[in-house]
Amino acid sequence: MATTNNQSPTTKPQSKWKVPLLEANLGAEEMEVLKRVIDSKWLSMGEATEEFEHRFASYLGAKYALATSSGTAALHLAYLALGIGPGDEVIVPSLTFVATANAVLYTGAEPIFADITGDNDLNIFPSDIGAKITDKTKAIAVVHYGGYPVRMDEVSKLAEAHHLFLVEDTAHAPGAEFRGKKLGTIGDVGCFSFYANKNLVVGEGGMVVTNDEELAGRVRILRSHGMTTMALQRYRAGKPGYDCLDLGYNYRMDEISAALGLAQLDKLEGDNLRRGKLVAEYRERLAGLPEISLPFDNHYGKSAYHIMPLLLNGFDRNSFIEKLREKEIQTSIHYSPIHLFTYYRQRFGYQEGLLPQTESVAAREVTLPLYPTMGKDKISYIVDAIREFV
Ligand SMILES: Cc1ncc(COP(=O)(O)O)c(C=O)c1O
């Protein structure tokens, strides 16, 4: 029974913030699809998952989409299916979530970090990718930071010239495009995350997308213990047996997540559009402040506007964040560079100075609230707080 106290699972915890960093766009549509899953009494890898995969692939214009338990699982499966393993190197950015590089380590290969382009383009710098290629390099993994497309024409050329696989970590960018093609479909394989803070949310979930039939087959097998058939196929065919062809994992998606994914996919275009309008509003209202720069001015292609990053020029980030916290505005940082995390420093001996552009941006970046249900009044409130401070 629904109650009004805070212990009730039907009520949201009281927000600590006047403006939180993000808020998922969830409502009656999601309630409706969840009810259908409960009514079906089938909870993992069933018809909702099949439909989500099918609709996600056709939305992107890709041949195959395979749902996974997370974006990290999607990356791990993609690297494994490409045959990446011990002795191989994969070039990745450091200004990203740690999973992009961790998933390379899971395979036994080594992530090699390339710098970003600079203050305006926080994506991996194609020239630095070129500089980091060795005879051990097997793949390049790009991340479309904040939903803004990487210069895929230059990176694709490099990959082709050196016979390297190209992986797109598209966790921030479902629906974004480069030269009319959806991100995640330009390289050999695209990996999406549907984690709770993403543009399309299911809680925990991800997707591997590819046009390569063999690669899709390997991902399918590795996703579920190397098994040749899934419960739904055995149920439909009435044949109980299966074989295990490889050492696979349990990286499957459950039906509740897949159903949420279907409802969220219907909202994605509208939500991305709304995010874009909010970003335009931020840009207009924050223009002309020399203390602040807003990256991705004149960006390439169509963005998914996942986050709203800004860079502080010449004053203290902690005081800035503290000032906004006093006004009950939640902020974040994207990202602490991976190569300077304790684990990576200790394992690989990395030190400051390895990636000058990444380190400079990482020290000055602050992420402002951005979510599709956010009103423009919230932006006025945030901008006033910032103008008061600077
Ligand atoms: C760029 C990037 N790559 C990978 C991931 C991993 O996704 P997940 O949290 O679904 O495992 C995330 C987000 O969480 C991410 O932001």
Describe the structure.
The model is unreliable at 1-8 (pLDDT under 50). α2 (47-60) runs parallel beside α9 and α9 packs across α13. The protein is of the alpha/beta class. It has two domains: 28-115 and 122-263, Aspartate Aminotransferase, domain 2; 268-389, Alpha-Beta Complex (Aspartate Aminotransferase, domain 1), CATH 3.90.1150. It is built from 13 helices and twelve strands. It is globular, with a radius of gyration of 21 Å. The termini are far apart. Strands 1-9-8-5-4-2-3 form a seven-stranded mixed beta sheet, with helices on both faces. A three-stranded antiparallel beta sheet has the order 10-11-12. It has a two-stranded antiparallel sheet with strand order 6-7. 39% of the residues lie in helices and 13% in strands. The protein binds pyridoxal-5'-phosphate. Residues 70-72, 96-97, 99-100, 143, 169, 171-172, 193, 195, 206 line the site of pyridoxal-5'-phosphate.
